[in-house]
């Protein structure tokens, strides 16, 4: 029910510019597109991600490796932008192109299209270093727009045309940043609140389960150009609810069995500031391939490479 690739979210005391750069260069996959450095007015980002499938977790959390000839891969190209609306308020947006590659039992297909568009805003409550003893604190509010094709609206036999969730979602997140000298630590998390949607195939009103995500990222800056980080992310979504054709009658609603999801993801990231305006970014995200580290999701290794241009 969910596409991998959402992939995650969650004080300068000595060197303001260096610490701010370290904290800004990782882009959260679910709740935003990162943030501006203190000297920037806007930034644009283009990146490509390839997710290669190695198996799947079932509803009980049991891991099963892919059988010979089975392919479940995803390729994603994304453009994003972020701009300063106010000294403490930034607005952002992103739009992906999603392509799916699948093969089962001798049949194969490759197809895709526009994914879900994300729009949002980020408000900074406390800047890094504003108070030496406190972290930087920011809140984000986003809206997932169902511009992609949902699973229930798939038209190709292997559902390779599925590129989105099919629902409007409200995303609320927060981040806490610590930085000193050459190191930084970022903790964050958020909620995904899906809105009810009417399925065109059945006429029933469904609502995805409430989603939760938490992440931790820490890194070190080597010199003034290279930042290496490690990121850990956990996501969880509760059961889908189906209310039949009348959403105003709660007694008709029921939980769709085995529709909850869970996932754990780990991996390194790298940011290389080629010039003051241009930064090259790369990331590897790997779920622990084993029983207990996922529910109802494919197990995919995701590799991404992108470039970011800051305007100032």
Q: Would you kindly provide a written description of the structure presented here, covering whatever features stand out?
A:
A hairpin with a 2-residue loop joins strand 3 (71-86) and strand 4. The chain has 1 helix and 19 strands. Helix content is 3%, strand content 55%. The termini are far apart. The model is unreliable at 1-30 (pLDDT under 50). The chain has one helix at 16-24; strands spanning 42-57, 63-65, 71-86, 89-104, 107-114, 117-126, 136-145, 169-180, 183-194, 197-198, 205-207, 211-222, 226-237, 241-242, 254-255, 261-273, 278-285, 294-295, 298-311. It has 312 residues and is an all-beta fold. It has a 12-stranded antiparallel beta barrel. A 4-stranded antiparallel sheet has the order 10-11-14-15, with no helix packed on it. The chain is globular, with a radius of gyration of 20 Å. The longest helix is centred in the first third of the chain and has 9 residues, at 16-24.
Summarize the structure.
The protein is built from 1 helix and 19 strands. With 312 residues, the protein is mainly beta.
Helix and strand run: HEEEEEEEEEEEEEEEEEEE
Largest β sheet strand count, sense and barrel closure: 12 strands, antiparallel, barrel
Give the helix/strand class.
mainly beta
Radius of gyration: 20 Å
Label the overall shape: globular
Helical content band: under 10%
Counted beta strands: 19
What is the rounded distance between the termini? 41 Å
Q: Count of helical segments?
A: 1
Strand order of the largest sheet: 1-3-4-6-7-8-9-12-13-16-17-19
Residue stretches low in confidence (pLDDT < 50, at least 5 long) are 1-30
Mean pLDDT: 87
Strand content: over 45%
């Amino acid at each position: 029910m969910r596409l991998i690739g959402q992939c995650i979210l969650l004080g300068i005391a000595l060197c303001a510019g260096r610490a701010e750069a370290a904290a800004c260069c990782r882009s959260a996959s679910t709740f935003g597109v990162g943030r501006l450095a203190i000297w920037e007015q806007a930034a644009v980002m283009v990146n490509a991600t390839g997710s290669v499938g190695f198996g799947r977790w079932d509803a009980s959390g049991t891991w099963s490796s892919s059988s010979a000839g089975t392919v479940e891969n995803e390729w994603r190209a994304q453009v994003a932008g972020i701009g300063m609306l106010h000294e403490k308020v930034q607005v952002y947006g992103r739009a992906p192109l999603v392509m799916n590659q699948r093969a089962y039992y001798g049949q194969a297909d490759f197809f895709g299209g526009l994914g879900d568009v994300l729009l949002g805003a980020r408000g900074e409550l406390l800047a890094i270093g504003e108070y030496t003893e406190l972290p930087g604190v920011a809140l984000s509010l986003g809206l997932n727009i169902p511009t992609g094709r949902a699973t229930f609206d798939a038209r190709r036999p292997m559902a390779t045309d599925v590129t989105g969730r099919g629902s409007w979602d409200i995303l609320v997140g927060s981040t806490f940043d610590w930085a000193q000298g050459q190191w930084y630590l970022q903790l964050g998390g958020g909620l995904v609140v899906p809105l009810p949607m009417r399925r065109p195939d059945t006429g029933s009103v469904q609502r995805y389960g409430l989603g939760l995500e938490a992440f931790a990222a820490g890194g070190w800056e080597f010199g003034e150009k290279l930042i290496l980080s490690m990121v850990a992310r956990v996501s969880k979504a509760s059961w889908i609810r189906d209310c039949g054709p009348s959403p105003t009658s709660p007694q008709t609603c029921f939980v769709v069995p085995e529709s909850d999801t869970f996932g754990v993801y780990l991996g390194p990231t790298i940011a290389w500031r080629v010039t003051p305006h241009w930064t090259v970014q790369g990331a590897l995200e790997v779920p622990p391939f084993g029983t207990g580290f996922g529910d109802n999701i494919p197990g995919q290794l995701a590799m991404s490479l992108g470039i970011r241009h800051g305007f100032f």
